[in-house]
Batch of 3 targets.
Target 1
Amino acid sequence: MNALSRTGILGGTFDPIHFGHLDVAAAARRALGLTEVIFVPSRIPPHRQMAPVASEKHRLAMVTLAVENQSGYRTSDQELRSDRPSYTSVTLETCVDTGIPPSQLFFITGADAFAEIASWYDYPNLLNLAHFVVVSRPSHAVSELRQRLPDLEVRMREAGTLASLDLRHDGTLIWLVDAATRDISSSDIRTRLARGDSIAQHVPPSVATYIERRHTYAARSMDGSLHD
Ligand code: ATP
Ligand code: MG
């Protein structure tokens, strides 16, 4: 591992991936000078009441299509290959085991997801496995997090202060990135698809074509079971 490289990890259900996810990745990359961002679709999201609608195969394929031809972005099926639930802590430990030191690892989340961090598996220890990069989401500004998570305030930094940081010695921190991302969610996309509305403004053309051709979000069977 190059001593100067910085690896970003963006976890999510990606059901489906959309422009909001790509905006988050770009904002984090720009703010922290990340060398690459790896998109890691989750297998069994521990915080979800409902299982993902699209199968693992389809979610991975859509993420791969969305990031192909974009230098510095790639996809990992690390969580999908594992038998365990998708715990961020386990994913980050695996990255560290493969030789990426926590000081060069950056886990990216939206502010809505990070607001629930205290309920994540292995909290607060997982905060030592990587830097966390938290990006504002429409209606979830990162500026609210200092008040919402007072125990973590001491670790929070505005991303603009990175220049003065010695990443090797200053421990892992929580970087707040107040960037604009598009007001898009996967749930809204699924609702639009169920209504027959266009998603052209929400996902890259390759993903829209994939969904259309494979009927990825065609009606679920009446008993609610998932299709492949
Ligand atoms: P759902 O509606 O099914 O929850 P989602 O759009 O929130 O889907 P996720 O896969 O849950 O997408 O999100 C993965 C990560 O990306 C989370 O950390 C989430 O906060 C972040 N994220 C998703 N969309 C945005 C957005 N528009 N702006 C900022 N962050 C986002
Ligand atoms: Mg979400």
Target 2
Amino acid sequence: MQSLRSTALNNLSNASDFKVDGSPKITAIFNENVFTLKVARQFLSDEAYKSLAASIKSGKKIDRSMGSHIANGVRAWAESKGVTHFTHWFQPLTGLSAEKHDSFFTLKGDGTPIEEFDGGALIQQEPDASSFPSGGLRATFEARGYTAWDPSSPAFIMEIGEGKTLCIPTIFVSYTGESLDTKTPLLKALVALDKAAVDVCQYFDKNVTRVTATLGWEQEYFVVDAGLSNARPDLVLTGRTVFGHAPAKGQQLEDHYFGSIPERVYAFMRDFENESYKLGIPLRTRHNEVAPAQFECAPIFEEVNLAVDHNTLLMDVMTRVAKRHNLKVLLHEKPFAGINGSGKHNNWSMATDTGVNLLAPGKTPKTNLMFLTFFVNTIKAVHTYADLLRASIASAGNDHRLGANEAPPAIISIFIGKYLTDVLNQVESRVGGKFDEQDEAMLKLDIHKSIPELMLDNTDRNRTSPFAFTGNKFEFRAVGSSANCATSMTALNTIVAETLKQFKKDVDALIEKGEKKEIAIMQIIQKYIVESKAVLFEGDGYSEAWAQEAEKRGLPNVKTTPLALDAYLTEQSKALFESNGIYNHLELEARHEIMLEDYIKKVQIEARVMGELATTYILPSAIKYQNILINNIKGLKDAGMPETAYSNQQQILQRTCEHIMVMSDSVEKMIEARKQANEITDTRERAIAYCDNVKGPYFDTIRYHVDKLELLVDDAHWLLPKYREILFLR
Ligand code: ADP
Ligand code: MG
């Protein structure tokens, strides 16, 4: 039988002839499949339209009495586009999106078939929730869960693959109201941030009534040939290659980053971009990344909730579209050892309903003070809750990346650039926080003139920082490529909300004592700078010196997921989440449990795949090659050749034997360690055992010997597609 590898290689030359329809004008297809307010205007009665618009604006639930009217309009629109089915679209704690399709078709009491979509079906559903992770929540309470429409994210039609489906973005909660998804806590965090930020804005501008957090993500990913990918059980089952020797040519030439996009990938990009535009995802940039076969795309930023939905949707769209190009998208944080992994930078800021970006330096002393307030509060939040931010990006996949000299280290620090460092130093150096009328100069800092030029100059950027200020927003760079941004965004928006609330209390206390408002604000800003400056770091985040320095500064540096997740359950975190109404302690404990379980499962599956591949793929190939060597040596001996004629072969045989021995021995030991880990009942302890006793001692060892064998064994007998084939063949 031909190996899958050779079949895939043979098929490469005619891998895809999918033609992308021309290049439609983006504005002509943008939002084509979205129930926007403009469409709503057309399909809804005045009353229903007003009700929907009000819900979107206020974030309030849809008025039940209007539900059916809105549902009828949505159905009429969807049917006009050939849609027959609908689904509530939600993001359970698996990190992916979930759907349950229902058709509009139903039978009336007398058996007459009709198409129907009532308000109830639009607003609320009860999908069978038992197959989604709940961390024991549903067991404790009630077996059912329900989904409820989030009107702030518009309905859309998914038309890739089979049929056209109307998708209603929803939250997913247990029957007793505990959140079972990533959207519910995010929406709560955004409400908390809105309230806290509006309160602080009132010091500067009474007209501000709403603050929305904004997010622009940058999605990195790999694209490989689907045939080659299918010939790698590790890629299929775990999303990453557990074996594979670095190719002779890796990323050392750095020629991919600036290179042109390969034709086949280019067709795929245009195709998924067009599908994304139809769904209202405002993609803006595309380019090659550092590693071979690695790329990135990024949209124009949006309000956080919508941006998160759009990212989740994009990951799904990319995966679906890739199929018709016979390609496979890899969203894993580290699909290939030895070359860069993938991240998802989260660019984040806050905007007022008066049109001000709160992290953009202003044009007057007053707006500059407003900028400084939000800037310093964010720094303080990140410093106080660094451990929680770290936890919010923890996953088995991201562990491969953080601290691997390609992504930020696991130490959370902030880069703000030289100019702002000087500004903060000046504020800080006011002895005793003594600002008075004469210090007007202080308030007139010409920040707005100097920052933009400085920050927008790429040379001033520090690529090694996990959290960087980039002129008018912060960029959280440590997020993993496969992550649902809601998790990191929930943490970030909650900690900033909490810090702003405290800021308001602190400033008000000074004002009550008779301090002038501006002076009180400056004094608290100064206090916060002093308290949180340890988190500021401008140097090389990859260096060993930084790890030592960070330790001196008391910054956490937790390298593995099972331990990083502890930060969710500290007294500080519980108080933070409970007082802001994001998670009660049951929800927190459930989430912690789910994330640990997720970690365990991922490492467990990787361990199984490794063991199986080593035994059923690598070993047989190596043995075949051993036999070839043995026969050759024997033959040469029999033919009376001198020892020099076969001593090389003997050496290779010797090395092959050694690698096989250590590999097989390590696999046995790993299986034993897994069995022991499985017997541990405490989830956290079991996760630690998987990390320290299964993965820790064995993954690298097994891989090392397999990769050595790859370099020795006859290429014709090697079953797994090699890195050079996966990464460079198009
Ligand atoms: P780069 O990081 O490559 O220099 P840009 O600065 O253009 O790229 O922006 C990166 C991402 O940041 C984009 O998705 C962009 O929309 C987003 N972004 C820009 N301004 C904001 C903002 N105020 N809030 C959130 N995201 C923003
Ligand atoms: Mg960036």
Target 3
Amino acid sequence: MPDTRESAPVPGGAPSHFIRQIIAADVAAGKHGGRVVTRFPPEPNGYLHIGHAKSICLNFGVAAEFGGVTHLRFDDTDPSKESLEYVEAIQRDVRWLGFDWKDKLFFASDYFERLYGYAEQLIRAGKAYVDHLSAEEIREYRGTLTRPGRNSPYRDRPAAENLDLFRRMRAGEFRDGECVLRAKIDMASPNLVMRDPTLYRIRRTPHYRTGTDWCIYPMYDFAHCLSDMIEGITHSLCTLEFENNRELYDWVLAALDTPHRPRQIEFARLNLSRTVLSKRRLIELVEGGHVSGWDDPRMPTLSGLRRRGYTPEAIRDFCERIGVARADNRVDIALLEHCLREDLNRRAPRAMAVLRPLKVTIVNYPADRVEELPARNHPEDPAAGSRTVPFSRELWIERDDFREDPPPKFYRLAPGREVRLRYAYLIRCVEVVREAATGAVSELRCTYDPESRGGEAPDGRKVKATLHWVSAPHALEAEVRLYDHLFLKENPAEVEEGKSFTEALNPGSLEVLRGCRLEPALGAAAPGDRYQFERLGYFCADLKDHRPGTPVFNRTATLRDTWAKIEARGGAPPQR
Ligand code: ATP
Ligand code: MG
């Protein structure tokens, strides 16, 4: 089981949840012999996102708690959009998140023959029929919430005729869409799902695993409950939109009189502010070129979050804190970022980097001198050790840290003012050099106090600001990518008539800075390594584009924790 670290109780977040309570009661009652078997059933038609992480943590977490197991099952019954690329990416992401399905890897497509057998059994029992109504007619006959449906004229065919027709469907004697297999339930049921739902349809699309073996494919409602039954799943956890399907889930198993009956339990799906979590929309972002791919660091996919610098621990902590509820809700993305900052604050070594460099020359520092100054890798963790940073006559500081006309409360560098350089010396700005052509500030000339090594003056005089810096001749040049939320709107899934959700995209979600300067210790960074660049935020070496000679860093998060502020103001529930 992954380590779910101790964290302060979340306002509004319950320590336990209703699914855990249901399972605990079942175990106590000796149901299923006290066994707990859950499954995570992704359809391999896209990459996993943070919403799936909620489901993964729930399924694996709750089973492990009760000494049970969790299956990874690919729900691959619709060949049109499924692929091996997605199967592999999903396995990589579940493993990265910290979960292990051991040898319990399953594919619904492996059950095609058995599912077909169950369908014949239903037909023989007079509980399913082949219908020749068109898709449109079926919809028309179904009725509405206020109007009962009508029976199809094909509904009362004898079982033998249905069996023959179904076998011919399988044999490829009908065109796509010419007929379907439907369950014979109740066209007047108040639950629309129960009005003779389709169980099989004809689709001549090659399947990424079974090729052209089949031209009929089972529908979700038929395949899912039976896959759960075949695998001995005890608790089948799914999202709320399947609530109405539960009656059908139970009906299929009862109609086949299966010895094992899993129980479907629904929970609220995760919605996150300033992002979209539907695969259809995520695919649109990728295919429309709005992002660079599924693993674009702005994407809410697990591969995107990984590339952004998220840790699996932070994501698991987030999933723990949001809890599991029965009602739909939207979680503030600031909570996810808060979990990330908490984790990175603990584990990320500190380093100095200057993103928008301004040259500083220390006029009273000898040109040929270089000092190696000790710097701690982590302020609270002595075990993280220390390194040295070179100090020399020519430095880079952040352009933002200098103002010619400092406004009130701007305590950083200004003409005539003294500041501290972290781990180094106190310096005072004595001259501002400008570009002749534009008048823009091109360099600051400063003096340093040789008595202030380490950053404190012997006379104890105070300076208000401490700046980060990098020695110019030793600096590494780097590209740094600054990311912000992908959407400006709180709920980008809420779209006006005739508009696309992509109109709410944040045009400033990516800013690429070139010519950034890094302290030389960062030359050892490997792709995926995470740091806190002092005063700037958390950054990670890009998994794809970073090379030791040509560093590329992604900004994982700034240091501003808006969630901590919300909590400090008296708390806010994680869900709203
Ligand atoms: P989408 O609606 O984005 O296409 P999906 O539900 O069709 O997603 P699946 O691959 O079928 O995607 O999902 C696998 C499992 O993950 C299902 O049990 C599903 O209920 C769960 N899941 C998907 N999205 C979320 C979410 N946002 N929050 C929690 N669980 C989710
Ligand atoms: Mg689905």
